[in-house]
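From the pipeline queue, job 12 of 40. The input is one protein chain; the requested action is below.

Action: predict structure.
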Amino acid sequence: MEATIKKGIVFDVKKYAVDDGPGIRTTIFFKGCSLRCWWCHNPEGQAPKPELMYKRNRCIGCDECVKNCPKEAITHVGQRVSINRDLCDLCGKCSQGCPSDALVIVGKEMKVEEIMKEIEKDEIFYDESDGGVTFSGGEPLFQPDFLDALLEECRGRGIHTAVDTCGYAPYETIDKISDKVNLFLYDIKMMDDKKHRKYTGISNKQILENLKRLAENGSNLLIRFPIIPGINDDEDNITKTAEFTLSCDIKQMNLLPYHRAGIEKYKSLNMVYKIAKIQAPSNQDLSLIKEKLETFGLRVRIGG
């Protein structure tokens, strides 16, 4: 099958990104992820199919969506509308007729050639800033054939590529693309497997093993360590994360401070946000973690 006819599900294309790898970048957000991290700020990237988001703060109560829904999946309840997601078939008529953009379908099928047309628009910025394209999500490895086709196209055009990944996939899947990836932005969330299962839904064993093998095979790797207060910012986890990173002969790490920006998205998707009481780490706390990691000889940056 030709790369240009491969398709995938994407939920966003972010232009002029500066926190997803070196230089100015275009970030392509893939839909679908095997993990369910409690702190995920892109919950719309978890399910591998399009979804209807209802942004309550934008709703003006006009009932156009109720009138336009052919499945009668939307009803007016109090000051808001209620969506029966079992009846909804994502026809899009409610969002098309919504005057305030309170209803939005996130995720759409795109061809490789469509994505490449978006990327081509920004190539001048890559050249001037040593930037490129970052594939993120969700989890880009969740759609491996689509990712492989896009990486192949970028390589053919000399575009720098980064893959932002949790590392959860069969190693064969990662190995297939590794020579087409200029930089892996690789998450290490926590070292204790029991805690990892609790807070992400899966074991970290394959994730850590994949990281070791990528490092042994000479891939360019930057570790991204999300800092979630009360969950993975304890001294034991910080120490073990540093030791494991160095055991892979990786010297660079970025700290990604937890933030609460995704909470409204959970409400929009009728999902439960499990850590609503947790606050973002203070600058002082982040500085102390950075200093601790640097005592191991790591080069550490706060932010993407």
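Job complete. The longest helix spans residues 144-156.
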